[in-house]
Amino acid sequence: MTETVGGSSKKTATRNGAGDKNAKLKVERVYTTAGKHPYDEVTWEHRDVVMTNWRDGSVNFEQRGVEFPDFWSVNATNIVTSKYFRGAVGTPQREHSLKQLIDRVVKTYVEAGLKHGYFTTDDDAEIYEHELTWMLLHQVFSFNSPVWFNVGTTSPQQVSACFILSVDDTMESILNWYREEGLIFKGGSGAGLNLSRIRSSKELLSSGGTASGPVSFMRGADASAGTIKSGGATRRAAKMVVLDVDHPDVEEFIETKAREEDKVRALRDAGFDMDLGGKDIVSVQYQNANNSIRVSDEFMHAYENGGQFGLRARMTGEVIEHVDAKGLFRKLAQAAWECADPGIQYDGTINDWHTTPESGRITASNPCSEYMHLDNSSCNLASLNLMKFLSDDGTFNAELFAKSVELIITAMDISICFADFPTPAIGETTRAFRQLGIGYANLGALLMATGHAYDSEGGRALAAAITSLMQAVAYKRSAELAGIVGPYDGYARNAEAHQRVIRKHSAANDMLRTYHANDGAVQKVATKAWQECQRIGARNGWRNAQASVLAPTGTIGLMMDCDTTGIEPDLALVKFKKLVGGGSMQIVNQTVPRALQVLGYQQEQIEAIVEFIGEHGHVVDAPGLRPEHYEVFDCAMGDRSIAPMGHVRMMAAVQPFISGAISKTVNMPETATVEDVEEIYYQGWKLGLKALAIYRDNCKVGQPLSAGKSAKAAATAEAKPETVVEYRPVRKRLPKKRPSQTVSFTVGGAEGYLHAGSYPDDGLGEIFVKLGKQGSTLAGVMDAFSMSISVGLQYGIPLEFYVSKFQNLRFEPAGMTDDPDVRIATSVLDYLFRRLALDYLPFEKRAQLGIFTADERTAQVASDYGSGDVDLEGLRTSVDATPTTDPAPAEKKSKPQDIKVGSSTELLELHLGKAADAPLCMTCGTKMRPAGSCYLCEGCGSTSGCS
Fold first, then answer.
1. Domain Ribonucleotide reductase class II vitamin B12-dependent N-terminal: where (predicted)?
2. For residue 238, what are the contacts with CB-CB under 8 A and spacing of at least 6?
3. For the chain, how are helix, strand and coil distributed in percent, rounded to 5?
4. Catalytic residue among 368, 533, 635, 924
5. pLDDT value of position 151
6. Which of 292, 401, 887, 931 is an S-S bond match for 554, by CB 3.0 to 4.6 Å?
7. Most confident of 105-114, 228-237, 613-622
């Protein structure tokens, strides 16, 4: 740990000249042992990293003989080698060991710490070097990606991933915005800004003409962002565009992306390639930015009261138009429902927690909405792996966590001393305010491992207590550093406001309600830290204007072998795991057996439940698992997904202990209504969030298409008849005598019969469904429904069309069935059309729809993962067990050799039988998974937003 003690010290004063000349930073050992280097405590091994595009087999990256600890996973090894090792591959200058990477970064930090007066003696510096090295080596935390990219290299020492720009109402400023944004994108980072200073299209120019308005200038910036690939890589730039709710062009801004979605639909239906990454998608505008509306408390009160709200001219501030607040808020919700944009930012809450209001308001955020501070500023991030602080007895080690935060926040502040920045203005502001963004990953795994449901009072209490402790210790360390090397330059002007915000954090901690020994113990340590923070800060001030954010932790989450990213819950209960020597397998999340043990289950019960989860992907009806424990295993996706308000409540629990905001998207089901979106946005304001974004399943048109669909679309586009011919469908009637079959079924306790008649050439031609008593309304409706489907089939409507429309339709009765191939149905129609697909559609078409028989699923798991059984021994020992050999492969029926899985998202799709709304990675072709407001590729570590 580090502490300040009396005595003389060597130090470098800041421009404020603050700092106690008798104070010095004494570093004590936390993780390391004197006389033994951290590298000597682990077993190292050499591995070959060969990363391929699993869809076509092409090699994306290859480096053989890299050196890593034996406990690092294959995935973490691959990502660090391909993403973070510097030097040309195949040359002696190329890094080939994790030791080289950690040394390159840590030694740079320690040298800067000595140079700028953070450490008194060389011994303190050496201990600090060993502590940081140990923590990085053992995946306790990680710096954000730019640190690994740039620190210790000949490149500019850029350490920040988050940037905020500014633009004024002049052409020179607008063109400079394009330029600065391009420079940031070129460096592999993202930026956000607020366009509200640009006058609206309803105002006049000094020349007498009408202004273009901010939305028109967004087109040029969007085109620029789409052209510049971040860091020379394959992913596009990440950016955020914000507009204030009182801007006269606010309605145009709200509807911008929703109208582009209409264009995508029209072009897709006309045969153009509108797939994500397709050749024609580039014609769609405004797709390279996340859009957000900045709402004020005044507007939200007008919304509550059903009143009018004034839109103000940018140049004079006068109200030029009144709008109905409820109507405008409904348009915001409607647009978000249609295309997930715009998100919402709550200006009143943001600036109420602002530590430096005398230096300017907070008007914008970075692309993922977690960093919010002054214009032309940046923030460097680091995240802790929360599972590293969970003891074997299930207690969270608050003391060790606090000591770790002290070490990390010190390093983060040191980095500003030597960092380079993309623009002079950003460099000046960052050095003056020294914004930091410490955060964490693996919260979802931690809650499950301790037996807490993500959407529960106990889970939120533990998350809030941990976040409060992190913030308290970070600011306490910041106050201690201010006593050594001085507070940030802007502190004197903002001292009163900064102290007020610290008191707000501390008061929120005092109001925490604890439910278990774990969260109670953590809050107790946090309370003591807040008291020390205020006492030391009152004397020294603080070194940093901001201390924390909750970032997506995409690539670095994989580097730390985290099961969950940022504040997110687990994606699903089954994972896709790469094996040493190549190949992969399906395993149940290793937090599941740990959670079952905490909940009091015996080893035999745990093994049976884990085996059930491995087969079904969920816990419903798992043998021996009590229904009251189901909620502990709820995930972001799957049969028991967390309700949207569960995500919002978790964000609200931790927001009072974060300097910035939270990168997170609230997932909503496809059946969610515009009113549901409106309520989520309203509750976000009521609960004190700073920002919120939603995503409704299947709301985006430009999602990845299957190869079959793409080929069909291409063929349609190429077939251009010279003359217009009117085609009419012809009914093909069934012969008097035709083959048929009858299937009895049960869905959620409701019994019924499905009679299907087919043509002699084995094509389905009619169905009859018996459900309910004869003469009942339900029976009559099903008779009419059966006739309409039968006539449609005879007129040539493909069965797969009906299946795609009716599968996953949700209404009662629903639940378990007596059909081994369709174990759970969301409705009777969902079951009927899945059964018809299994009986009458060829495997290739069913594969596109995600519908397989039980034997096909078993065969797929056996062929792709080595065994249909879950690797129980591997779960117990955290070591990959050798896949078992199928004793009787000849007894398998159809074996879907052409179905392959490349990520946990695709594995989840296999279990659910439906596609997930996630883009394909442009580097390796695997389907990405959500990570905060961005997407993350498990195959190569690429992200769709901030690193």
1. 49-139
2. 189, 190, 230, 290, 367, 368, 934, 944, 945, 946
3. 45, 15, 40
4. 368
5. 96
6. 931
7. 105-114
What region does 884 belong to: left with phi over 0, alpha with psi -120 to 50, or beta? beta
By CB atoms closer than 10 A (0-12, 13-18, 19+), residue 8 is exposed
Q: Which domains does the chain have, with CATH numbers?
A: 2-150+365-555 (no CATH), 166-359 (3.20.70.20), 730-895 (no CATH)
Whole-angstrom distance, CA of residue 163 vs CA of residue 377: 6
Cα Dmax for the chain:
104
pLDDT digits (tens, 9 = 90+) for 868-889: 444 444 444 444 434 444 444 4
Task: Kindly report the number of other CB atoms within 10 A of residue 728's CB atom.
Answer: 5
Calpha distance 169→221 (Å, rounded): 15
Q: Tokens at residue 181, please?
A: 């944004």
Which helix (H) or strand (E) segment holds residue 745: the answer is strand 740-747
Among 496, 477, 479, 497, smallest CA distance to 487 is for 479
Cα→Cα distances 34→28, 38, 194, 214, 403, Å: 10, 10, 51, 60, 18
Amino acid type, 712:
K
Distance CA 743, CA 389 (A): 54
Q: What is the pLDDT of residue 872?
A: 43
Q: What is the mean pLDDT of residues 320-336?
A: 97
**Which listed residue (181, 370, 406, 856) is catalytic?**
370
Secondary structure, 3-state, 280-331 = CHHHCCCCCCEEEEEECHHHHHHHHHCCEEEEECCCCCCEEEEEEHHHHHHH
> DSSP label at 899?
-
Active site annotation includes 370? yes
Closest by CA position to 237, among listed 221, 252, 249: 221
C-alpha 466/C-alpha 446 separation (Å) is 11
pLDDT at 206 over 80: no
Q: Are strands 59-69 and 740-747 parallel, antiparallel or unpaired?
A: unpaired
Residue-level pLDDT at 854: 84
Six token digits for residue 480: 């201690």
Q: Nearest CA to 650 among 504, 550, 560?
A: 550
pTM of the entire predicted model: 0.78
- CA-only gyration radius of the chain, Å: 29
Closest CA to 693 of 304, 292, 371: 292
Q: How far apart are CA 821 and CA 834, in angstroms?
A: 9
100-133 confidence digits (pLDDT tens)? 999 999 999 999 999 999 998 899 999 999 999 9
Compute the distance between CA of residue 919 and CA of residue 901 in angstroms, rounded to an integer.
Answer: 15
Identify the DSSP state of 943: B
DSSP state of 550: B
Alpha-carbon separation of residue 597 from 21, 594, 603, 605, 607 (angstroms)? 53, 5, 8, 10, 11
Cis status, amide bond into 342, omega within 30 of 0:
yes
pLDDT tens digits, 33-82: 999 999 999 999 999 998 876 556 678 889 999 999 999 999 899 999 99
Q: Active site includes 675?
A: no
**What pLDDT, on a 0 to 100 scale, did the predictor assign at position 91?**
94
Our answer to whether residue 366 is catalytic in this structure is yes
Report the pLDDT value the prediction gives residue 287, as an integer from 0 to 100.
Answer: 78
pLDDT average, residue stretch 142-158: 94
Question: Measured on CA atoms in the order 925, 931, 935, 940, is the torsion positive or negative?
Answer: negative
Distances (CA, A) of 559 to 131, 330, 383, 934: 19, 41, 11, 17
Catalytic site residue from 75, 194, 290, 366:
366
Is 90 exceeded by the pLDDT of residue 729?
no
Beta pairing, strands 319-324 & 308-312: antiparallel
Residue 235 confidence class, pLDDT cut points 50, 70, 90: very low
Q: How big is the CA angle at 266 (ends 265 and 272), to the nearest 5 degrees?
A: 90
